[in-house]
Amino acid sequence: MCFSRLKKEQLKEVMKRMMREMDRGLRVETHQESSVKMLPTYVYSTPEGSEVGDFLALDLGGTNFRVMLVKVGEDEERGWKVETKHQMYSIPEDAMTGTAEMLFDYIAECISDFLDRHHIKHRKLPLGFTFSFPVRHEDIDKGILLNWTKGFKASGAEGNNVVGLLRDAIKRRGDFEMDVVAMVNDTVATMISCYYEDRSCEVGMIVGTGCNACYMEEMRTVELVEGEEGRMCVNTEWGAFGANGELEEFRLEYDRVVDETSLNPGQQLYEKLISGKYMGELVRVVLLKLVNEELLFNGEASDLLKTRGSFETRYVSQIESDSGDRKQIYNILSTLGVLPSEMDCDIVRLACESVSTRAAHMCGAGLAAVINRMRERRSQEVLKITVGVDGSVYKLHPW
Ligand code: BGC
User: Fold this and answer.
1) What pTM was computed for the model?
2) 39, 146, 200, 292 - which has most CB atoms within 10 Å?
3) Strand partners, 71
C-alpha cells in the first residue's frame, strides 16, 4: 500500500467507527472493551469567569514541564484579568522512564525552584494540575493513571492516584505546601481557557506530542457517573482508537514499523497516525523505503537518517514552509548527513505533505465524530460550536 489521499468515503467510515466507539465508551456494559474510553472529568459546566485570586498551575504532558503563577482579578471592562509568570523545565529522560517517585520528586523540585524565584515559598496556594494522560477520575481532584503515553514510562504510577503521587512528593521535600484543588487533562484546560474568550467553546482538542479531544456531553448519557441533569466534560482519549482493529485497513506498512519500534506497541494507534511524537518518524520510515527502492538520494541513506527519531517532527513543518527555493529543505537534509539533488528535495517535501495531510484528515474525521455526536444528542440540524485547539503541531505546522 502507498500513501495516497484518503477518500471522503473512507474518512466517513473512520468517523462512523469513532462515533460507535465513543458510544460504547460511555455505556457501562461496553465501557471495558471500548478502545475510546470517554473518561468523565467531573468538570460539570464551564466556568463563570468569576474565580479570583492567585493560583499555581502545573502542566505535565509533553517534553517540558511548566510551572505558572496565575493571578485572576476583577477587570472593569472584561470582568476579569489574568496575569501569569511561568517557567519551563525540561524533563530528563531518566525521570520520564525511571520510577514514579523519581518523576514526582523532580516535579516537586521544579515547583520549589519556581517558588524561590518568585519569593512565594511561604504561601500555600491553590494548585491546578494539567496532567495530559488518560486518568480515571473519582472527582476533580482524584484520579488514577490508566496508562502512560507519548514516551513516558515511569514505573509505579499506572493504577495510582496521580494527585496522591504529587502530594506525597511535596511532603517528602517538606520545604513548601500546596493545596491541590484540581487535575485536568490538557484538552479540558484548552476548552476552559478558550471558553473565557468565547462562550460557545464546548470542545477542546490537542494536536501536539499527542492527540486527543474533550467535549461537553449530556449527563444522562455519561453512564459511569450518577446524575441526569446538565452536562459534563468528557475526555474522549481518542488517541487509543484502533486498539480493536478499527483502523486496520487504513494503516500502512510505515505505521506498523513506527508502532512496533515505539515504547507502547499496539497502543495509541490513532494518535500514531497524527501526532508530533510520531510524524517525523513516519516521514523517516517513508524516506528509507524510497532510498531502498533507489528512488531517493541515489539509493544511499546516511547513518543519521537510519537512526530512529533523527527526523524531528519540526522538520516536517519547516520543510513544508520552504518558500520554493528548497534552501530550507536542503539545510535540514544536510544536517541529517545527506546531500540532496533538487529532485530529492521535492520528493522529501512530498513525503512530508502526504504524512501531514493524512494526519489532518484523520484528525478531522475524529473531530467530525465528536461534533456530529453533540449535534445529534441536542437534536439539532445544524450545530454552531467553537473548538479550542492547542498543541505544537497545530501551532507550528504551516497548513
Ligand atoms: C494522552 C491524552 C492527551 C494527549 C495530548 C495523549 O497521548 O493520552 O491524555 O490529552 O496525548 O497531550
Assistant:
1) 0.95
2) 39
3) 54, 83
